[in-house]
Every structure is written in C-alpha cells, then in structure tokens.
Amino acid sequence: MHRRILLAILLAVAVTAAALGIPLGFTAWELVSSLAKEDLATRAQRIAKSLDNTIAAGEVIDTRQVRLAIPEDGFLLVRGQDGQEYHYGDRPQGEVLAETANLGGGGGQVQLTIPAEPVRTRQTQVTIAVVLLAILSVGTGMVVAGVTARRLARPMRNISARAARLGAGDFRPDAARYSMQELDMIAEALDASAEALSALIRRERQFVGDVSHQLRSRLTALQLRLDALTAHSDSDVVEDARAAQEQADQLTAALDELLAAARAAREAGAEPVDVGAQLREIAGHWGPVFTAKNRGLKLRIPAGLIARATPARLREVIGVLLDNASRHGAGTVTLSARAGDGSVVVSVSDNGPGVPEDLAPHIFDRGVSGVGSTGVGLALARALAEADGGRLELASPRPATFSVFLLVPKSTDLSEPPLRSGHPR
After folding, report:
1. What is residue 75's three-state secondary structure?
2. pTM beyond cutoff 0.85
3. Domain range for residue 81?
4. Same domain for 244 and 275?
5. Nearest CA to 134 among 8, 28, 30?
6. 73: domain CATH number?
7. Taking the CB of residue 424, how many other CB atoms lie within 10 A of it?
8. pLDDT computed for residue 222 by the predictor
9. I need a surface site. Which of 28, 212, 250, 272 has the fewest CB within 10 A?
C-alpha cells in the first residue's frame, strides 16, 4: 500500500515536471535569444538615429560618436549614401547575431553584430536553471509523496490490523481517528460492527445457557418421576418407565454433546500457551505505562504453567485489566498466575480504593462504570475470556482483584510444544 501510493504520487510529480519543464526550458532558451536580438535591434536604431542627425548637419560620419551604444564585444558597420563604409570594433568570428537599421533617406544602412557564444552561454545557463528547478520540484514531490504515503498507509495498516483483531474475536473499540473522513468512517463502522458482534455473541451465549439450564432442569425432573415409576407394582408400567428413562438419558447425553460441540467451535482458535511467557511479554508492554505514572508493576508467575487460550485474546483480556488498574487503581499493580483446580488462574490486583459495593455485582455489565468511562472494556474482556472457554471474575472488590480462569489443555492438545510468544508458529 505504502509503495503504491508513493509510486503514484511520484509518477504524477514526474509527469507534471516533464510536461511543464520541457516547454519551459524551450521557452527560456528562445526568450534569451529574443531578448538579445531585441536589445541589438534597439541599439542599431539608436545608432542610426544619431548618425542621421550627423548627416543632416553636414558633418562627416564618425563611428566613435556612437561607441557608447555599441556592446563591448560588438562590431558596427555603417554604409553611407555614397557607398563608403565606416566601422567600429573588431569583427567577431564564428557564429554571430546581427541586426540592421536604415539611415534616413534610405541611402545608407547600419549593421550591428555581436558574437553568438555569450548568448548561447546565457541560454544554457537559463536552461540548466529550469532543469534544476524541475529536479527540485521532483525532489520536493518525493518528500511530499513519502510523507503523504506514510500518512495514508499507516491508518490503512491500523484499520487492517483492527479488522484482523475483530475477526479473531477482539471486540474492543479503538478510539484512534485519522482526520480523514473516509478512513474515520471505516474506523467507526468497525467499532459499530465490533459492538454489534459482541452483543450478538453475548446474547447467543446467554440464550444457549438459558436453554441448557431449562432443558437440564426439565430432564432432571422427568428422570426423577421416571425413577419413581420404576418401583411401581405393575410390570408394564415399570418396563415403560425404564424405556422412557433410557430415552431421557440419551437425550441428556445428546444435549451434553451439543453443548460440548458448541464450546469446541467457539474455542477453535485456542491452543496450549506458556502462560508465563505470555504474561511477561504483556508486562514488558505495560511496564513503561505504570513507570510514567510513578507506579510499579510486579510479577508473580511460577514456571511451567500451560493453559489453553488464544494468545491475542489473552493479551487483550489482561490488557483490559491492566488498563483498568492504571486508570482507576492506585499503588503497585500485581500480575500473578497460579495453578488452580483444572485451570490456570491469572490475577490482576492493585492497592487502590477498590470497587464500590453497589457497583461490584454489575461490574461486567455493558455501560456500567464507576468513574465516567464507557464501561465497555470489562464486558468485552469477559466475552473474550469466555470465547476461549475460560471466565473472568471479580475475585475481590477491596483491594480490586480480577481473576481470569483459563482451561488446562487436554493431553491430546500437547502433541506440539506450547506457544511461548504472541506470534504464530
């Protein structure tokens, strides 16, 4: 993108420089020659007028009287009415420029001649100046093209990366705008799409959870009723009850398989990652942010913690929590990890005032914020954590401690080494 924009602008500048420079150079060349001839003709006219006055007074023609009108390297030739010639200066050799003027009465002529070499030198100098001006314009165009290409390409790369993150499940809005109407419209459209997708996924997960809960509750109640019927005195009733109970068990198993398949599809991008390596990389990015605020970022990460997650989503989730601690917390922030019961728990805590009691139950609801922010970050962070099969919880309101519970990979997931950094293999 950067290269294409740069080449397009340079081509436009080069074509413009050629379209203007060539005619301008030719015009400058002819203009110098025209000005030299015009000056020579004016001098010849002045000399002829002066000599006319001399002839009218009955005096003898003396070319020294008009020497001031003759160029320094010029040659004057005067042909009188009687055919006699008068001259002044040395006759130039080689190519010359000459202009004539008639004396009064039409009986004589004045011819003024100068060597053409100085004029050709001036023509060359002016043409070179025009060429240098064209080169300067092309050079200026290159600088402008480079600045413009970077100014256009950087937002396009940012928008491309934003779209890629959106496809990876990162629904966080991006406040960056570029002072270009079209690009800003695209950025706003991506933010609107991210919000719509996030809401859609949350509604879908809530719906699936509600349906799952309702079906399980009804199936459990049905199985209890059928279990009671298996103790009935009528053998036919017992047989039908057991058959129905078998069907209910199969329906329960089918429901479990469908929910497991849905979770597997949702977690398709997750893979075994080295949690310690990921968190150290994240801390390296956020460390300067806290240092600039005279706050510290402490790590407590044991070695050997492996979890199943999508690296990009994990970075975003932890980034939201660290950003939240940076904005609303105080003191040193601690980023820690530990092995839990079938999970790896990553926690972010600080020494600030914590989460108010009335806000704590709704801290992950969209639009809920205690300090005037948008209230979107924590809701999206929870959605990203759940997208990998994990969950995000407020472990402690005071001091504020948020914990991310990541799944431990299955043995079949560990056939390849865990991903140690945020880059693809």
Report:
1. strand
2. no
3. 2-120
4. no
5. 28
6. 3.30.450.250
7. 8
8. 81
9. 250
